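Box S2. Input/output pair 1.
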Amino acid sequence: MKKVVLTILKIAGIVLLVLILLIAGFLFWLSRRPFVPNNYTETVETGGALEAKYLAMGPYEVKHVKAEAPEDWKEFVAYYPAQLEDSGDQWPAVVFVNGTGVYAAKYPALFRHLASWGFIVLGNEDPGTFSGDSTDATLAWLLEQNGDPDSVFYQKVDTAHMGLSGHSQGGVGVFNAISEQPNGGLYTCAVSLSPTQEDLAAALNIPYDPSKTVIPTLVLAGTSNDVITPEGMEKLYSKLGGPRVMALRTDTDHGSMLYSGDGYVTAWLMYWLRGDEEAGKAFWGEAPELAGNPNWRGVQISRSAGEGTSEDADH
């Protein structure tokens, strides 16, 4: 009888060990699983020629480097056009502000895509980005690399053309990085994707004030299960002080907004940071493509700063 009990206990112990290993393996896989599909540039539905153009991969091959980061940010990562290494040109930069727990390592496809259009694209592994401090540190790291003769980025950063883009808590971090951080004045334009609604952000103790942002800003969100309502988007949009555009992507949830609007995100950055006039037609002129795109609604556009601008559209 004693041998039977010992055998049963041994088997139970083995089964428990196997379950623990399986759970640990699943959690590790979950922690490393990409948050953005690697083929999203081929699968996201587009409703306009410009959206499709800038959602596709750009003309540059891409490389990346990593460096140790302080605190619990683990590492800085930078994706860049391979041509940067051999050219004498300077390249615009974009810092990504990740959402809660969605570290840079979880969406390399997004970094590769934007870098393929001629940008130095930066991120880190900060689990909580709302304050903008890790974003500021990431930008500061790139500026240091720009002055380091041993760095691949030595004198290769176009410091007059730098932007940032963030999703969810990172969408909040975008505004705080601009208005509350030492290097905030260096940004040329911004993108905030599904930022946590102001009242909810205040309740979660991750506050922000969009009225302090006066650079060109694109704000996008989804119509399904997002952390900001259409009314919240309009309120946020009305507080922005510079050229601004807002839109809601139909039948798209919070998580998917990280990449589903990437065609217009890329166009926005191409226009403001690389002077691409064709990209600007997605937002400006008598018939901006975004305003007539069936996949988007609630579009509002203000070309100049301040209230009562002459070029507003609500579709």
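Box S3. Input/output pair 2.
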Amino acid sequence: MSYSSKSNFALQYTLGDVLTVKDGVRCYPATDRENGNRYIAKVHSFPAKPSTTEAFLLSGAFPNIEKVNAYYREQARELCKQAAILNALSHTEYFSHFSACQTEPKNDLGYDVWLLSPYKRSLYTILNKVKLSREDIIELGIHLCRGLTQCREAGFIYVGLKPQNIFLSAKGEFQIGDVGFVPISSLPYATLPKRYSTIYAPPECQDLFSVISNNTDVYSVGVLLYQLLTGGKQPESIKKLPDSVDKELSTVTMQACAPTPAKRWSHPRDLEQALTDCRKLR
């Protein structure tokens, strides 16, 4: 791995073998050498790969290496701002927090941003072992909608929702625990960052030149509900739910992940109410 010889993380924490590597982001199990507490260390590298720098220079996007490095530094700062937003929202029960965020220059060019989180099981891990009941799925959907509403009230829309970013707290509640915040004020012209172009992002946002829709978060919850109602595996596409899913919950879920923004719920609060109504039916 690449870090400065003065890395505080490297000195304070023992890192295990890398868990995942994707798009310049590496995740490691980390143990505090002083007290033995366990964490997950997520390292975002800017640039994600060395060839990026050469491409910037050859294309003329930046005139020299100093300007390229300044761009990487700004990317690192923006990520730290994202971490600060998550921590500000963690005073609610719907978001977890980062225990630490640290930017470190690489030995050659660019920066690593270390994000440290207390070790918790993710929804992704849980789905590999158990199948949630109808009641549990509805409760999770309601809880996520309330969190996304809190996020909107703080001035942001969350675009990073997926099982890997949802964690089980010590109190047994699921919480959003990673970056992915976009200012609502920027929606008329903001495009979805490439790292969030997953199946949980709506079709209209997959185009690199399309702006983020104002109910992107609703779509993400819809796909997640769809996934949970079809056995827990990430769906390759969204089709009709199986007949084993009751009509009311099926209708709510399919409206949430409708391919056309105008046909979806416009706000997480609306989806929350629809799920609450489904809960009352049983």
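Caption for Box S3: The chain is about 35% helix and 15% strand. The mean pLDDT is 92.
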